[in-house]
Amino acid sequence: MLDLKFIRENPALVRKGLLNKNSKDVVDEIIAFDEERRTLISKTDELKSKRNQVSAQIPVMKKAGEDTAHILAEMKLLSDEITHLDGQLRSVEDKIENILRHTPNIAHVSVPVGKSADDNVESKKWLPEGFSFEHKFKILDHIELGKKLKILDFERGTKISGSGFPLYMNKGATLERALINFMLDYHLQNHGYKEIFPPFLVNRDSMKGTGQIPKMEEDMYFIEKDDLFPIPTAEVPITNIYRNEILNESELPVKFVGYSACFRREAGSYGKDSKGFLRVHQFNKVEMVKFVKPETSYDELEKLVNDAEDILQALNIPYRILLLCTGDLSFSAAKCYDIETWSPAENKWLEASSCSNFENFQARRANIKFRNEATHKPEFLHTLNGSGLATSRLMVSILENYQTEDGKIIVPETLRKYTGFELIE
Q1: Same domain, 90 and 142
Q2: Is residue 109 assigned to a domain?
Q3: Helices (H), 231-325
Q4: One domain for residues 267 and 137
């Protein structure tokens, strides 16, 4: 959530930031409500001060035997007016809160300005040694491979749950589990994260804290009877671990990694390519989350991207990194890199990871602070997260890039100790 004081003092900057994010300009509306709020606070404080002064006079008057009836009547009117003003103030503050809850974060100055994904900037490309975009045999896509090798069954997944709910079978299920365990172990052993296994259902406050609702509630599954949401990403429960808490500066940075299943309705995705793993409602993901000091957050973002890259290089999967433009940034992000892996069958790059710095946007919404050792005052920290990585699109790249001419799948060497086999045939 944006800081009200920052908006008041930097209206032009915020207005430009919202415009760059293709978002509605609400600056004038917020400032108008803020002026009304401050006026009401001033009036209320003035009346409360007057009430306190008069209240102090009443015992003195009674002791002197003076009649206090008119004073008490005046106090009643004063109290009624204060109650009325307090109600008005709550109403205005609720309006400001509602607008801010629907207002996105603004982009960091290093983010390129653009309207859509077409304006994203490729910042890096990594190809395994000997890799070629050309192939000597016909490449099968992951759906064909899954069916032929009896490791994926999208039709039965649809029968069980509906479209977008994949069913892993036999060595496909083992490969998926191996990939998750490998990524968790790698981050724990090489990158210094601590492991979290979070709840997969969260309450409304948790979803508000990380920015999924109210703005994007239609994209979320919802269990109405219990007022709980199946998580769209482990970012939600892990970030909310410290909701309404104050950490010590010496504890930072805190680095968590956790696996979860992820559930997304994808309500706004109609018309997009939805076959196989390209667009699913349930998928698995290993998530990295950081709580850091504000002055280090952009260095920590680069490290976060490197941590995700290490996984792909260990798997020997071709990938590229995109710096997202302002118009393609998520609601909460101030800066984001997407990491895309290569699908030879689709002949295109597929997003497998997003690494974002939210600055203090989520921390304000979730009220997560740290105590500054120099000032001894609590301040909002910065939160970051990154997929380390999502398995669905990554699985596409593994199956398709590691297929042989006779339709088998060579298991990436780094996964073999987890699978117990080297070949899927």
Answers
A1: no
A2: no
A3: 235-239, 297-315
A4: yes
Q: What is the pLDDT of residue 77?
A: 84
Query: 126: alpha, beta or left, given left = phi > 0 and alpha = psi -120 to 50?
Result: beta
Residue 50, classed as helix, strand or coil, is helix
Q: What is the DSSP string of 347-398?
A: TEEEEEEEEEE-TTHHHHHHTEEEE-TTT--EEE-EEEEEEEEEHHHHHHHH
| Other beta carbons less than 10 A from residue 245's beta carbon | 11
Indicate if 375 and 289 belong to the same structural domain. yes
End-to-end CA distance of the chain: 51
Would you mind telling me the total number of residues written for the chain in this entry?
Answer: 425
CATH code, domain carrying 38: 1.10.287.40
157 vs 165: CA distance, rounded Å: 5
Q: Indicate whether 134 and 55 sit together in one domain.
A: no
Rounded to an integer, what distance in angstroms lies between the CA atom of residue 124 and that of residue 126?
7
Same domain, 91 and 187: no
How far apart are alpha carbons 183 and 190 in whole angstroms?
Answer: 10
Distance from C-alpha of 399 to C-alpha of 411, rounded to nearest angstrom:
9
Query: What CATH number has the domain bearing residue 345?
Result: 3.30.930.10
By residue range, what is the domain housing residue 125? 117-424
Token pair in block for residue 126: 């990594």
Contact in structure between 229 and 222 (CB atoms under 8 Å): yes
Same domain? For 133 and 91 the reply is: no
Token pair of 186, please?
């790698």
Please write the tens of the pLDDT for every residue from 71-110: 778 788 888 899 999 999 999 999 999 999 999 999 999 9
Domain-embedded: residue 231: yes
Q: How far apart are CA 352 and CA 308, in angstroms?
A: 10
pTM of the predicted model as reported, rounded to 2 decimal places: 0.91
In the block, tokens 């415009």 appear at 19
Residue 52, number of CB atoms within 10 A of its CB? 9
Q: Is residue 106 part of a domain?
A: no
| pLDDT, average across residues 320-334 | 97
Cα 191 to Cα 168: distance, rounded to the nearest angstrom: 29
pLDDT at 273: 62
Structurally, how many domains does the chain consist of?
2
